[in-house]
Amino acid sequence: MRLRLLFLPLIPLAFSVLSPAVADPLPVVATTSVLQDLVRNVGGDKVDVKTLVGLDGDAHTYEPTPSDAKAISTARLVVINGLGLEGWLTRLMGSAKFSGTRVTATEGIAPLTMQEAEGGKSKTVIDPHAWQSLANGRIYVANIAKGLIAADPANAAFYRDNAANYANQLSALETKIRAELADVPAAKRRVITTHDAFQYYGKAYGIAFIAPIGLSTEDGEPSAGDVAKLERQIKREKLHALFLENISNSRLIEQLAHDTGAVVGPPLFSDALSRPDEPAPSYLQMFEYNTATLKAGMLKN
Ligand SMILES: [Zn+2]
Q: Which ranges constitute the DSSP H helices of the chain?
């Protein structure tokens, strides 16, 4: 009897040795502000998420700083988009000596590809902007929940519940978006943006996006011939839905508008969320705002 009494208090001690206490809240690093918002929705107050590429920032051309390596080295979970978005990440991870859990949020997504011209040749490139469809957003959320559970198993039920609730919100928003866009006739469903960030959105919700710059803002300016061709198309098809993204340079779209008489619409939010006082500070608000903005533009076509 005495032996048993002595033994019982040892059990919690043994457990605390086997599974070391996870820092509270769990330190997480996400590469972009979109991923940061998704992690916050799943992790709630159990996580402290930093983003490397800030609000209105460009993940294609990002240059990591020494403080990024420091944040990664103390994180227990790193969430990346993958599909080639973060070309700068391998070197950063190498210098950060990260030993925690790493999640690629696009794992399991069917990636879209695109033909891009390079040095006179056409090559197939993977489109990394998979978060621009809410169906993919649900896969991101499932992957993030899996990562949080692996990094912090004590809060598994909390993460699972939040992920299920948030996935339901994404589904509800998707239904709303389809209903809103149903008012736009098929012939008007054409939009011009600077870089090709909305292929997933277009495929999911039935809109043709035309972008003079390719998938990455790194690809540079299109040729004068390509610009002239696009201007002829804008005039011929009487396109008025011309948009810039919050992360890209406005010069090209402004030139197109100037040469064709089309008016540039308010900026769309593509690769990064906005500041809190702007229209797209969360993933859900980004979709609501982009959809309303696109719809207003397309109805002028
Ligand atoms: Zn992009």
A: 2-7, 10-18, 33-43, 66-74, 89-96, 134-151, 156-181, 199-205, 224-236, 251-260, 283-298
